[in-house]
Amino acid sequence: MTKADWATIAYHEIGHAIVTQVLAKNVVIQYIQLGETDTGEKGYNCINQKNHIRKKSDFLDEIAIMLGGLVAEEIMYGQHSDGCYEDLADAKDHISYMLKDCAMGKKLSYTEDYLEDFYVEMEEILQQQKARAEKAINANLKALKGMQKALLKYRKLEQKEVYQLFEKYGV
To answer: Is 82 exposed, middle or buried (0-12, 13-18, 19+ CB in 10 A)?
Structure first.
């Protein structure tokens, strides 16, 4: 991995964290880390939810958080990397579960006759949540840049450090 690769990954992970802090008050960030995991991930955000029952608004917040890394990369570089594929897959899985299993969409049921409607609604949700993530990150660009530098320097930001940096940058 090059220094540029690590810089991209750090922006990506901080993007997730900023969107989490701005949108999801029922989620706590445990730490943010750079470095390869057993599953091959290069960066990682460890977050825990405070509650167990989720409403549609919780799912939408989670989807925006999943898109936060992609959005941070696009803001900083004008495009995103293939490192976003897992987040996009997870976001689509969340939307599928939300719409098909929990009936939290425009229809109570999506059968084969309604697959086109399902995919249209999925794209609408992705675009809406991407816009929410963009708004959160654009409002906190100093935090994105400052926290990225800290993550690159220390490779891991513990919960206390993450929230101190949020406070420092007014997130």
So the answer is: exposed
